[in-house]
Target: Pantothenate synthetase
Amino acid sequence: MKVIRSISELKHELQQYRVSSQHNAKIGLVPTMGFLHNGHASLMTRAREFADVVVVSIFVNPIQFGPGEDYETYPRNEERDLALAEKQGVDIVFIPTVAEMYPQPTKTKIRVSERTDRLCGASRPGHFDGVTTVVSKLINIVQPQFAFFGQKDAQQVAVLQQMVMDLNINVEIVPCPIVREEDGLALSSRNVYLNTEERKQALVLSRSLRDAEVAFNDSKSVTASELREKILSMIQSSPLAKIDYIEVLTFPELIPVADNAIVTEVESQIIIALAVKFGTTRLIDNMLFMPKGAFSIV
Ligand SMILES: Nc1ncnc2c1ncn2[C@@H]1O[C@H](COP(=O)(O)OP(=O)(O)OP(=O)(O)O)[C@@H](O)[C@H]1O
Ligand SMILES: CC(C)(CO)[C@@H](O)C(=O)[O-]
Ligand code: BAL
Model:
């Protein structure tokens, strides 16, 4: 496994793969912010199935953090990350510095409208401009055929799919399923911030989504607002939970489902997306539902 820190060296290395391969090596990119866990590992495994060369980037991207967010304290552990990537059979780990990615403050940003209006786009103004800008840069540098993203960050997947479609970027965005701890908590680098009590109470996210899934499967007449209320009351029973949002939307368009709509009758895929704070740690989770007539794009 090669560890590369400069853009020019990465481009050179990838060019070697392209010209030396008899089969036109397919490149898979897995963008991350490091502090890798099994959710990231699952993206690498998926990438290996699609691509001959797997490139993982590790970069805590300052321009997707707002003022007062956790850019400075975001967990980092390069040694452990490299060991995990090596174990996953990754070919190249790209670890640029901020100065390498942004030699001067970027004067150009990519902004996707509409799909960024709600959920984390509303709670974290400018966040997705930072994500789409850095992902475009990474795609331009690596020129992969495939790029892999976790469905845990479902809005990120929807926004990036919109971006590559609108800008005719020649890459397939491949969404990958959410990896969870045995007790249901979605893996996230930020879980490390949780103290014992917060970690315990954070289980309410996956449990409330599972309850919603049961209601969805058992009742032919459950409405969007009933599903939302069910989740709301369950999360509110956790004293430490501070709700940012609970929304029922179509996916990937992210258009709100009408309160009185019977969810099993909606003709597109539906997402229930949550963001909840426990102490200072903001966690997100979601579940996709496939009403009758809808077909999956994930
Ligand atoms: N539990 C998970 N299952 C599947 N994919 C995941 C999971 N957690 C993160 N990913 C994906 O890994 C990629 C890199 O994410 P990132 O490095 O921000 O990790 P993270 O655990 O989501 O961190 P954070 O705590 O900052 O949200 C993203 O595409 C993200 O969706
Ligand atoms: C895609 C990403 C690596 C861009 O910085 C980040 O938003 C993340 O880790 O999900
Ligand atoms: N995985 C999302 C990256 C962020 O929270 O900034």
